[in-house]
Amino acid sequence: MSQTADTTMTAPHSTTAPGHLPQLHRPRNPGMPLDLDWVARVQANTSAIERRAATLPGRRTVKKEFQAAWLARAITLIDLTTLAGDDTPGRVRRLCAKARQPVRADLLEALGLPGLTTGAVCVYHEMVETAVEALEGSGIPVAAVSTGFPAGLSPYALRVKEIEESVKAGAQEIDIVISRRHVLTGNWQALHDEMRDFRAACGEAHVKAILATGELGTLRNVARASLVCMMAGADFIKTSTGKESVNATLPVSLTMIRAIRAYEQATGIKIGYKPAGGISKAKDALVYLSLMKEELGDDWLRPDLFRFGASSLLGDIERQLEHHVTGAYSAGWRHPMA
Q: Which residue numbers are catalytic?
């Protein structure tokens, strides 16, 4: 889409209300053999990417009912996440309750959106069974981080086995971490082989490839790693584990979604995108949604092709929606994440 697009955003186009978006997965990405010539041709004009990204936050104006509609859509795209060392079954059950009812019932009634839910709940393997039980009947999938998350440096056989165990426990989506060294050393065949093995271990579960972009050095590496993971069968590509010093950024996002666009143009296969880490404000969610709409189109404003990896983001969106309904802001503590 043209970079001189209109500076206003209307409500997301859909024939169904945001609260009733179906949690349907697209067909799996079958992948393809590694095309090293294509990988070698991939470049990233860092200065141009950064200039384009810098224009995004100031170019979009969303007000009143349009802002409420976009923020409601953002909720349906959140992978509500807890990945802490002190996670307990009780914390995960509370998170799942929040996923089922992400906004106070009176606000949803006022907005005409009963039944609004988040896109998924994301947990460690140990908490998958708890989350699956807590979400039974909701249609909300459970995503599990895997493959030695966040560093991805555990023994290879154990990483593959971890995927299999999470799928067996009921996870419908698996967020894997790639071996960053393959990217940093340009060993694209090793990255492709690894990703293919991880995808095979997922069975019917959809796989999101976490690139840990803050550790890849350059935007060119980000673009090439994105392409190789898609060639190897990734259904989504994801920026970060949320544990790196630099997580999701607009330049990285622009780089990755243009790789998605190039892959679709070449293969006809649509790949999903998930920015994660550091997205905590409603206004940031609106920027990412406008970026997706401009660069990839309306299909990428649905949970089968776009997710936010976040937790605190939901609290700020709920505050904004309460302001829309009541005309007053409430204290942040009145809108706990879970």
A: 175, 238, 274
pLDDT band at 22 (very low <50, low <70, confident <90, very high): very low
Q: What is the CATH number of the domain that holds 279?
A: 3.20.20.70
Angle 282-295/250-267 helices, nearest 10 degrees?
Answer: 30
Residue 20 inside a domain? The answer is no
Residue 326: count of CB within 10 angstroms of its CB = 12
Whether 279 is in a domain gets the answer yes
Q: What is the mean pLDDT of residues 32-50?
A: 97
Residue 246 belongs to what domain range? 28-327
Axis-axis angle for helices 282-295, 312-326 (nearest 10): 100
Give the pLDDT score at 60: 59
pTM: 0.91
Instruction: Please tell me the distance from the alpha carbon of residue 336 to that of residue 272, in angstroms, as a whole number.
Output: 28
Report the number of distinct structural domains present in the chain: 1
Q: What is the pLDDT of residues 177-190, one digit of tens each?
A: 999 999 999 999 99
Is residue 195 within 8 Å of 234, Cβ to Cβ?
A: yes
Query: Residue 11 pLDDT more than 90?
Result: no
Does residue 215 belong to any structural domain of this protein?
Answer: yes
